[in-house]
């Protein structure tokens, strides 16, 4: 729980275990929904592994921007841009898997459903639901301190998986309860019906993550950050008698890229380099959020063309 990478590593190991467990029990119980749950977990594990790789790159770059090597040479402005790509790919893949599950469920219902071994299915659902609840609580608690988009998405994925498994447990328990009764005819339809219902619930859940990832990829500046930076720049301009300013702002994953250009009056008396550095420190402190994920450039020029 002490680091983003530690949480993701544990999540990946548990997810792989749950996925293999699900695929095995899906085959034993002849359940499409359990097999789907296992495949969904494998897809999530592959994305978590990719997220862990990107998190390591971002963390390594933040620790030593002067570090050598081909990666640092080729990605001289950092690896922040990889984060929204991974988040967008993750959300899109989970939605695609859910659409595939919905199509299979519809086809199975149209063909009359199929029988499954409810005892194996119930054992799977109970064990997996306990694992999902434990990991969702663990990731959510860890992210109160880490504030990581990757861990937040991972916690959401465990909650989604827990919802899937809870629905499976209810359906399988119902199937076992109606065995030998006049309602036994619904047993072949329970597995594809719950698969279709779960797929319908899951499909829209990653939409917000995909939309935010797309906004980061397109370098759409967050409104609150833009307003804050422009307010700081306006105060600095008025305080120091500058003519105008230009701002260029983008949020890329966890990284904030801010460029500020101040247009100073022509013929301004010369100042030492230390003076301009102190002014940059003053502006940076007013903007705030200083750290390895803030890329701040502040320039002063008498020629507006250099700021365009």
Outline the secondary-structure elements.
Elements: H1 4-29, H2 32-63, H3 70-74, H4 82-110, H5 118-146, H6 149-177, H7 187-202, H8 207-217, H9 223-240, E1 244-252, E2 255-263, H10 273-287, E3 294-301
Parallel strand pairs: 2-3
Antiparallel strand pairs: 1-2
Helix pairs in contact: 1-2, 1-5, 2-4, 2-6, 4-7, 4-8, 5-6, 6-7
Task: Please provide a brief summary of the model.
The protein has helices at about 5-30, 30-65, 70-75, 80-110, 120-145, 150-175, 185-200, 205-215, 225-240, 275-285; strands spanning about 245-250, 255-265, 295-300.
Largest sheet: 3 strands, mixed
Mean pLDDT: 82
Strand order of the largest sheet: 1-2-3
Estimate nothing, just give the exact number of structural domains. 2
pLDDT under 50 segments (min length 5)?
none
What is the first-to-last residue Cα distance?
Answer: 45 Å
Shape: elongated
Helix count, DSSP H or I runs of 4 or more residues: 10
What order do the SSEs take from the amino end to the carboxyl end, as H and E? HHHHHHHHHEEHE
Helix content percent band: 55-70%
Could you say which structural class the secondary elements and strand pairing correspond to?
mainly alpha
Task: Using the coordinates shown, work out and report the CATH topology of the largest domain.
Answer: Alpha-lytic protease prodomain-like
What share of residues are in beta strands?
Answer: 5-15%
CATH level-1 class of the largest domain: Mainly Alpha
The total strand number stands at 3
CATH superfamily of the largest domain: Cation efflux protein transmembrane domain
- Radius of gyration, in Å, reads 26 Å
Identify the CATH architecture of the largest domain.
Answer: Up-down Bundle
């Amino acid at each position: 729980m002490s680091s983003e990478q530690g949480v993701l590593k544990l999540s990946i190991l548990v997810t792989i275990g749950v996925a293999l467990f699900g695929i095995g029990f899906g085959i034993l119980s002849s359940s499409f929904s359990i097999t789907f749950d296992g495949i969904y977990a494998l897809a999530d594990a592959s994305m978590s592994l990719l997220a862990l790789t990107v998190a390591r790159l971002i963390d390594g770059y933040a620790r030593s921007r002067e570090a050598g090597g081909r990666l640092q040479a080729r990605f001289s402005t950092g690896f922040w841009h990889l984060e929204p790509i991974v988040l967008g790919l993750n959300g899109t893949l989970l939605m695609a898997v859910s659409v595939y599950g919905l199509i299979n469920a519809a086809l199975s219902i149209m063909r009359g459903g199929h029988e499954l071994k409810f005892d194996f299915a119930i054992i799977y659902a109970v064990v997996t639901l306990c694992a999902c609840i434990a990991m969702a609580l663990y990731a959510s608690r860890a992210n109160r301190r880490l504030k990581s988009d990757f861990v937040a998405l991972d916690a959401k994925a465990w909650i989604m998986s827990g919802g899937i498994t809870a629905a499976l447990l209810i359906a399988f328990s119902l199937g076992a309860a109606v065995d030998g009764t006049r309602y036994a005819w619904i047993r072949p339809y329970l597995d594809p019906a719950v698969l279709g219902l779960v797929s319908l619930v899951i499909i829209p859940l990653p939409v917000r993550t995909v939309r935010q990832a797309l906004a980061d990829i397109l370098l759409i500046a967050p409104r609150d950050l833009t307003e804050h930076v422009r307010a700081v720049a306006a105060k600095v301009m008025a305080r120091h008698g500058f003519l105008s300013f230009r701002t260029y702002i983008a949020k890329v994953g966890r990284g904030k890229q801010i460029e500020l250009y101040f247009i100073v009056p022509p013929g301004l008396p010369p100042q030492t380099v230390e003076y301009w550095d102190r002014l940059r420190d003053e502006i940076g402190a007013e903007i705030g959020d200083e750290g390895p994920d803030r890329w701040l450039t502040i320039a002063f020029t008498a020629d507006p063309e250099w700021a365009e």
